[in-house]
Design brief:
single chain; 2 domains; two-stranded antiparallel ribbon; 3 helices; 22% helix; rod-shaped
């Protein structure tokens, strides 16, 4: 083998070694990418904003795929978990759904029924009432005659809230100072039949219906005479 042939064999061996090195380099890069990315899993992203304490629907989410290693442990990967759940805070469009964003909607106890009424935002502890809270429901009634005093009544003590709807504009109320813009929130309660009738009556005939939020775990105990009030009671003291 002459010098030219030896140089050709040497160059061929170097080319083969370079090709083998490049091959293993590509394999190393691919393995490194796979180790950083990993297999993809399904997650769910919000298609629109969701108000706090409202019931969730599967139509509010879209499926997305992303690497498992970049997904938090609390991310929801099975959309069936939203059934019967409500949002615990405002959910923003584009956010990935997490377990800590949702809670189970309060359930009815035996003998209870759902009843919902619109509560004026200005008189209903707007923004502070959430499902599971207890409230006292007050109603004010005008006297039937000029001799009858106006009266405030606690028509339902310790009413359990199970759902809070969206803030809804109402028809403007006309006063001596002009029109006043009003907003109301549909609030659903779990009540027995008698209390549900009291609430329905108050919604139809009371001048105003107000809610008083009770401290967590502290239902109120009414003493005799506490459930009604007239201004004359203060005047007589």
């Amino acid at each position: 083998m002459n010098a030219r042939q030896r140089r050709g064999v040497l160059l061929l061996a170097l080319s083969l070694l370079c090709a083998i090195g490049a091959f293993f380099g590509v394999i190393s890069v691919v393995n490194d990418v796979n180790s950083k990315v990993g297999p993809e899993v399904t997650a769910y992203r919000l298609k629109t904003d969701v108000a706090p304490y409202t019931a969730l629907r599967v139509q509010q989410f879209e499926k997305v795929s992303m690497p498992r290693r970049w997904l938090s442990e609390s991310a929801v990967t099975d959309l069936s978990v939203v059934r019967g759940k409500i949002a615990v805070t405002r959910l923003r469009k584009g956010s990935l759904l997490q377990d800590d964003m949702i809670v189970k909607r309060p359930e009815l106890a035996p003998g209870e029924q759902e009843i919902a009424i619109m509560i004026d935002a200005a008189t209903g502890v707007a923004g502070k009432i959430t499902p599971g809270d207890l409230v006292n429901i007050f109603a004010t009634f005008a006297g039937r005659t000029n001799r009858d005093p106006d009266q405030s009544r606690i028509i339902v003590p310790n009413a359990k809230v199970i759902d809070v709807g969206r803030l809804t504009p109402l028809e403007a109320k006309r006063t001596s100072q002009g029109s006043v813009r009003r907003e109301a929130v549909p609030i659903t309660f779990a009540l027995n039949t008698t209390d549900a009738q009291r609430l329905a009556y108050a919604e139809s005939f009371a001048e105003n219906v107000r809610l008083a939020l009770l401290a967590k775990g502290s239902p109120s105990t009414l003493r005799p005479g506490d459930s009604t009030y007239t201004l004359g009671e203060d005047k007589n003291r």
